[in-house]
Design goal:
With 174 residues, the protein is mostly beta strands. It folds into two domains: 6-103, Jelly Rolls (Sandwich); 108-172, Jelly Rolls. The chain contains no helices and 18 strands. The strands form four sheets. A six-stranded antiparallel β-sheet has the order 1-2-3-10-5-8, with no helix packed on it. The protein has a four-stranded antiparallel β-sheet with strand order 4-9-6-7, with no helix packed on it. A four-stranded antiparallel β-sheet has the order 11-18-13-16, with no helix packed on it. A hairpin with a 4-residue loop joins β6 and β7 (70-73). It is globular. It comes from Ruegeria pomeroyi (strain ATCC 700808 / DSM 15171 / DSS-3) (Silicibacter pomeroyi). This is HutD family protein. Pfam families: HutD. InterPro entries: RmlC-like_jellyroll, RmlC_Cupin_sf, Uncharacterised_HutD/Ves.
Length: 174
């Protein structure tokens, strides 16, 4: 088990030129975890019949404007919405990086949970990735610092003082 720097993954530019996405993990047609670097305001891509969970991991946050409301995406706070929902992303305080989970709820259940403070986070067989948002952590003999990830963690994670970890879990529908 080695820490992964998602910024070292190849960037895929968006068609609208507003940013890039770095694919981290997934199963095509079922789910994917990615890191999006949003540098310009504009429409989100639609993901029909999918669910999205967006978590700001760098920057002051963003606003997701829909026809009926404005959803506020804040640092470290997972925000869930339908991939069918037309959204215009606004950046009132500049560019952001978002950890994204997109999944087909007909095939899998998806979750993104934040864990904070000095504590031990047990291993979860459904966890597919862990992103350390801030602070430091240890998993077995591996040290993590903010911005690093682990994939398919099998051992407990010890969070340091002021650490925040984002755990992404996927489980099959029965």
């Amino acid at each position: 088990m080695r820490p992964l720097d998602p910024h070292a993954l190849p960037p895929v530019p968006w068609k609208n030129g507003g940013g890039v996405t770095r694919e981290i993990a997934g199963v095509p047609g079922r789910w994917r975890v990615s890191l999006a670097e949003v540098s310009a305001e504009g429409p989100f891509s639609l993901f029909p019949r999918q669910m999205r969970i967006l978590t700001v991991v760098h920057g002051s946050g963003m606003e997701l404007h829909t026809e009926e409301q404005v959803l506020k995406a804040r640092s470290g706070a997972p925000l869930s919405f339908s991939g069918d929902l037309p959204v215009i992303g606004k950046l009132p305080n500049g560019p952001v990086h978002n950890l994204n989970l997109i999944f087909d709820p007909r095939q899998v259940s998806g979750a993104l949970a934040a864990h904070a403070g000095t504590r031990t986070v047990p291993a979860d067989p459904d966890e597919v990735s862990l992103y350390l948002l801030q602070g430091t952590a240890r998993c077995e003999n591996v040290s993590l610092s903010a911005g690093q990830m682990l994939l398919k963690r099998k051992m407990p994670l010890d969070l340091g003082l002021e650490a925040v970890a984002l755990c992404v879990s996927i489980s099959r529908r029965s």
